[in-house]
């Protein structure tokens, strides 16, 4: 199975581009996975074939993200919005939970948790229009909170923590929960600072409908009585993510992506380190172009800018439709910004080749000239 | 993309066989759906391309099952086990809910609902070892219950309602909830008797991770305050199943399956009627062979036997492993029974060709002779 022409570059914020090699494999194995005579979609989740797919995916993700042995990796359903309820249902003990608001996603999470716990705001960047991350030294953390939740990469506002907060150093010895949906597997995670990380798969890992939860063992087993069984971390963990039928196709594709990431190379670097180096380079050149331009602007504080999601605005917003039409004609897809922010957004996840960023910059330059 | 040799017949109870044609299409479109330059997995769920896929799937399913206009079709996540909580979270109003127990699935549902409501048993076939359906005339229904829940096809015990109960005629004017995961789209549904139907997709519709909910409009909008937003029918309905990112690949594959069902023909029959006629014939010949044999037995009352899931036992259970090995060698896959019942189980969903049932019967006959 080959593509006759080069594929366009897809800047969707999610569901998002997948490595072409992964798609080729998924297509080639569609009717017969490894001589089994079955598509992965047709396999019992309890059969030897799928168990081997699941176990490799779990093992590769653990290796990729250097997940310590005392953390469980759960393959679930429900996405980030589902986890906004599922995390407090499992971890809050109906007490107090703290949030730092840096954009739409942390706002949504904070609101949803209020159904199950006393949901506090420890700090908020709302006054800035969500263009920065409040200095952790200023956070008003409840030291008795069940956990503190941040969105470590805000997909819509284009804000990313370049370093995870060290809550213990901030005087609060409570678990940190990170919603890392839109930058998981794009950079390393300092697990010594994290109690639970969750991510919808549809940005950097695979198709929508699969949700990854990585949770420290001591945080499992405290679900509220009203927690649905399908979303009870203890039941999911005890049953190797097969308490209910897991999203098997999503696990398979994510497994292909994990394998792809592990094989990446950049100079002397391999795997996640290689991907991260490439992501740094891709983001740096795009922001440098935008900052040097008189026509485009990104309004996020430079220290808080996301490597994955780059929102930007045209000086003349009446040209937005022309910009998108011209982009599509050049094979640069899905650049429209989120409706709540407006403008444009280039999501440059792991699967976006550096050539895609170069092609975008070429087009930005060309369009700027034509608009002069 | 062609398969060099005939595919084996896959009798998995779920995730289960898909029509070969659907797999061929999914493989062929993997890198470039209809000239979009994207895999369906890479499309924004809010983009024109995916919206067209979603709308066609919704329209085709409505046509296929003759779903009246006052029912909403929701594409969700969480599977049957998720819905065991999600249904009472949305419909119970924390009052009384009734269940009829006919096997493992209705038992699980009744237990889970107890977290959110007073969960009653209106009737149970447990004393029979779940080999029959209690006569509806004997059901002790609470006329003030928020709904009565049945599993209209018990995947594990192989029991199927040949006719849905008419609760009104039984003196209880309350909504009927049916878990129809393992026979949806295998036969018509009498919507005049149903308030809500739900189904995990992974038997007759597509990959696991997609859950279909079809609910009468007046039952939407009464969720408990503790219902997670992602699973609140009102929010899901108002946002055309895009309150959170839906399982886009699952919707796409299910859409291909709906299209396939609609194009089926048997004599003068088309679509669901054709599929149902074929299913009746497939099941009849398999049960006839089992009943006529001295070596195999199915213990379900003939009037309650499932057309989709046929559990059976060998007279000499010490031959079980031999039976499965021989079956696999002949390309008859995943015939092992569920661990809670034992023996064998042949799931003969829509995608199982009649030739697969014929091949199974040939093998049953051959094995019986060899065991004589």
UniProtKB/TrEMBL annotation, chains A, B:
Homodimer. The modification N6-(pyridoxal phosphate)lysine is found at residue 203. InterPro entries: Aminotrans_V_dom (IPR000192), Aminotrans_V_PyrdxlP_BS (IPR020578), Pser_aminoTfrase (IPR022278), PyrdxlP-dep_Trfase (IPR015424), PyrdxlP-dep_Trfase_major (IPR015421), PyrdxlP-dep_Trfase_small (IPR015422). Pfam families: Aminotran_5. Keywords: Amino-acid biosynthesis, Aminotransferase, Cytoplasm, Pyridoxal phosphate, Pyridoxine biosynthesis, Serine biosynthesis, Transferase. The lineage of its organism: Bacteria, Pseudomonadati, Pseudomonadota, Betaproteobacteria, Burkholderiales. One of its GO terms (cellular component) is cytoplasm. GO terms for biological process: L-serine biosynthetic process; pyridoxine biosynthetic process. L-glutamate binds at residue 46. Belongs to the class-V pyridoxal-phosphate-dependent aminotransferase family. SerC subfamily. This is Phosphoserine aminotransferase. Residues 9-360 form the Aminotransferase class V domain. It comes from Corticibacter populi.
């Amino acid at each position: 199975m080959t593509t006759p022409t080069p594929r366009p570059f897809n800047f969707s914020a999610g569901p998002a581009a997948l490595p072409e090699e992964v798609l080729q494999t998924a297509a080639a194995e569609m009717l017969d996975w490894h001589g089994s005579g079955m598509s992965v979609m047709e396999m019992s989740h309890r059969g030897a074939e799928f168990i081997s797919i699941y176990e490799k995916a779990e093992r590769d993700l653990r290796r990729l993200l250097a997940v310590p042995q005392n953390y469980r990796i759960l393959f679930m359903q429900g996405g980030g919005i589902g986890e906004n309820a599922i995390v407090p249902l499992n971890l809050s003990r109906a007490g107090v939970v703290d949030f730092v608001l840096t954009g739409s996603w942390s706002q949504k999470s904070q609101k949803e948790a209020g159904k199950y716990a006393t949901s506090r705001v420890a700090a908020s960047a709302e006054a800035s229009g969500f263009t920065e991350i409040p200095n952790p030294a200023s956070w008003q953390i409840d030291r008795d909170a069940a956990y503190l939740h941040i969105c470590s990469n805000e997909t819509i506002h284009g804000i990313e923590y370049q370093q995870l907060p060290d809550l213990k150093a901030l005087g609060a010895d409570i678990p940190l929960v990170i919603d890392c949906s839109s930058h998981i597997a794009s950079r390393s995670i300092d697990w010594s600072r994290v109690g639970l990380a969750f991510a919808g798969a549809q940005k950097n890992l695979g198709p929508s409908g699969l949700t990854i939860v990585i949770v420290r063992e001591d945080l499992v087993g405290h679900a509220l009585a009203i927690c649905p069984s399908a979303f009870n971390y203890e039941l999911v963990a005890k049953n190797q993510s097969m308490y209910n039928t897991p999203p098997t196709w999503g696990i398979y594709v994510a497994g292909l992506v994990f394998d792809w990431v592990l094989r990446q190379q950049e100079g002397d670097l391999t795997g996640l380190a290689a991907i991260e180096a490439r992501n740094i380079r891709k983001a740096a050149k795009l922001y440098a172009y935008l900052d040097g331009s008189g026509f485009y602007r990104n309004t996020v504080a430079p220290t808080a800018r996301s490597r994955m999601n780059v929102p930007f605005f045209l000086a003349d917003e009446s040209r937005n439709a022309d910009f998108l039409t011209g982009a599509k004609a050049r094979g640069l897809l899905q650049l429209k910004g989120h409706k709540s922010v407006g403008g444009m957004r280039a999501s440059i996840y792991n699967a976006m080749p550096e050539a895609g960023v170069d092609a975008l910059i070429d087009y930005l330059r060309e369009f700027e000239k034509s608009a002069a």
